[in-house]
Amino acid sequence: MDNNVRQIERSMFRTWLTINYWVIYIISLIACIFFLFLAIVALVPLYASSQNSNTSVRSRDYQYSIAFTAIYFLPNNKHDHIIKGTIEDINLISKEYQKRIYSSIHHDLKYRSMKILNELNEDDYFENADKCGKTLNTRGIIFKIGLEVTYPTDIKCQLPECVQHFFSIIRKELQRMNTLPVQHKNILEIQLNLCTVENY
To answer: What parts of the sequence cross the membrane (predicted)?
Structure first.
């Protein structure tokens, strides 16, 4: 009788040990899964931050820029004794153009140069006069203005189609300045007419 009781007790003890083992095992497994989940949650922001940092570096490494040329024409009539293409004239018109262009285009735009063409440099003059729709009988002064526009790196989309769309908008903004009024020494306001805007 005593042997039977002892066997039952041993059997119950083994059962109790087995149950405890599985309970501890399951609790440990759940704890491991829980801590693994916490670790993943903690690492996600670090990974996202790393990806954003790498993206910003790549965008700075691959900047897009385009050179634009705006060509304006001033007929020689009653103004030909006022505007003669001197350095003073270039500075005056250049200053007025920059004031207008920087107020209308708020991007990474650089004013590069202004070149004046007249009959003295015939090849360049008549080549550009054709772009203005002028004949050889038309006399005047042509102003070639060089600009450079860089695609902003802080724009989220850095794909070629986004870049192309951006520069097409800039071109339209430049074409919208179809006239350039200039006050010359507070004497007379002259007006340059836009012929074309080219980009390279």
So the answer is: 21-48
